[in-house]
Specification:
alpha/beta; 5-stranded parallel beta sheet
Length: 498
């Protein structure tokens, strides 16, 4: 039982980063209360169930398993034991406009056969690309992701100068592919992962070759019961550590006094005081809505934001065994797709899209004899005018999904959909307070990485901390876990708690 002199922390938001930060702190004797505006924990790693169909509303696959292992170990737990994960191989089934296909797998013999058929000699290029990805992954994890840059001198250091050549941050990812492949479809097949960061491969640093590498080398995994298993596992650890959770309660304001924060004001008018506040809400939202106006709020409005998605969640009254767990339809007009999304903030005419069938991996995700299907279509984030026609774009995206699925013999899908739930950028903004409905928060362009990304502690309010997608090191579930550890360590050091 904690005493009256026990330090107290309020965490705003029960996303992955918020739960993990709260657990780190509580395990070291801090009294932590997590305030969540929604009815359940998870944030963007959300889940819902309807008529026996279970849907992961956010991420649908687990990548970078080595990070999960390290971060769960830092919480005193085993990721493998708690998540009960299984490796998914092949990782993806890619389908192109003419219905030709490429199956991504760690089976190098099968990769060689497929790649040589598409472009003679390309397997050698593929092996060289994996070698570069290996180098980028290990260097980026050691020198960037796992570093908590608190001072500019730690980032802009002569010791980091070699990274300009070793990590290729100044080269564009897609342009860099010319060193390995000539075939545009192969260039697309090993750069589409940039959308995980909400980025276009035509703008993303070539550093992100680390993502295709880790998927093939370390695997794509699926936790038993879906990605929400991660939330459930973290909640088990948090509750064992004594973290208190308050749901259905929105924070209206962070109370400030001088150079400190004093707690939060809730939407119902109540005040909760604390020795420190950790904001797991979307960082731009915090600056624009919960703190007194300042220059940083305006600066954040001018930052680059990630793209968004239109998601469809369908309960289906029959099974489609021919549909693999992870299918990607990649448009030949690859550059045009990203131009429409990133520059025009709209839906491409022939969009690339992703289909997830979780019942291929866990039969409990759908009732017997039925199927659970999620379709995700990348799209531009909300613009400043508010004039985007989301009902029309949603209808266009739905038609594009149905048309693509005819390539898999699923032309009858519309006749077998029992119900549909869909999210547009407006939904992401409303449900999770994501500024501009940008599903991955701030973008990961070169000037928003490392020390240049918003820091985990406020520059003025010394006891206000940040964790999550728009802070260092970046977006995604694994990096949220890293961000949580960075934030907790820094706060504990400030309080001289071991």
């Amino acid at each position: 039982m904690k005493g009256k002199n026990t330090p107290t922390v309020i965490v705003i938001g029960a996303g992955i980063g918020g739960i993990a930060t709260a657990t780190h702190l509580a395990q070291r004797g801090v009294q932590v209360t997590v305030v969540e505006k929604n009815a359940r924990p998870g944030g963007r790693c959300d889940r819902f169930t309807r008529e026996g169909h279970h849907f992961d509303a956010g991420p649908t696959l687990l990548v970078m398993p080595l990070v999960y292992e390290a971060e769960f170990a830092a919480l005193g737990a085993s990721a493998a034991e708690m998540l009960q994960w299984q490796r998914v191989d092949p990782t993806y089934h890619l389908i192109f406009d003419d219905n030709s296909r490429l199956t991504l797998t760690s089976d190098m013999k099968r990769m060689q056969e497929q790649l040589e058929q598409m472009e003679p000699g390309s397997f050698r290029g593929f092996l060289r690309y994996l070698d570069e990805g290996h180098r980028h992954y290990h260097l980026a994890m050691e020198k960037l992701v796992n570093r908590d840059f608190r001072h500019a001198s730690e980032f802009f250091s002569p010791l980091n100068a070699p990274l300009l050549f070793q990590l290729k941050p100044l080269a564009k990812h897609y342009d860099n592919m010319a060193h390995y492949f000539d075939q545009p479809r192969l260039k697309a097949a090993f750069t589409f992962q940039d959308v995980y960061m909400g980025l276009s491969p035509f703008a993303a640093p070539a550093t992100f070759s680390m993502m295709p590498y880790t998927e093939l080398a370390h695997g794509v995994w699926y936790p038993q019961g879906g990605m929400y298993r991660i939330v459930a596992a973290l909640m088990e650890l948090a509750q064992a550590a004594g973290v208190e959770f308050v749901y259905g309660t929105a924070v209206e304001q962070i109370m400030t006094q001088g150079k400190a924060v004093k707690g939060v004001v809730l939407a119902d008018g109540r005040s909760l005081k604390a020795d420190a506040v950790v904001a797991n809400a979307d960082l731009p939202y915090v600056y624009q809505n919960l703190l007194p106006p300042n220059g940083m709020a305006q600066q954040l409005k001018r930052k680059r934001y990630s793209c968004s998605v239109i998601s469809f969640f369908w309960g289906v009254d029959k099974t489609y065994p021919e549909l693999p767990p992870h299918t990607l339809f990649l448009a030949d007009d690859y550059r045009g797709n990203f131009d429409s999304i990133i520059n025009d903030l709209t839906l491409p005419q022939t969009p690339s899209l992703y289909i997830h069938a979780p019942a291929r991996l866990d039969s409990a995700m759908a009732p017997p004899g039925e199927d659970t299907i999620t379709a995700i279509v990348p799209v531009g984030h909300l613009d400043e005018t508010g004039e985007q026609d989301w009902p029309t774009m949603r209808a266009q995206a739905r038609r594009a999904v149905f048309e693509r699925l005819t390539h898999l013999g699923m032309g009858d899908l519309p006749d077998h959909i029992k119900f549909e739930v869909n999210y547009t950028p407006l939904s992401w903004r409303k449900r999770y307070n994501l500024v501009k409905g940008a599903t991955h928060g701030l973008g990961h362009n070169l000037t928003q990485l490392g020390y240049l990304r918003p820091h985990n502690r406020h520059a003025h309010y010394h006891n206000l901390y940040f964790v999550g997608a728009s802070t260092h090191p970046g977006t995604g579930v694994p990096t949220a876990l890293v961000s949580a550890r960075h934030t907790a360590v820094r706060l504990l050091e400030e309080w001289q708690i071991g």
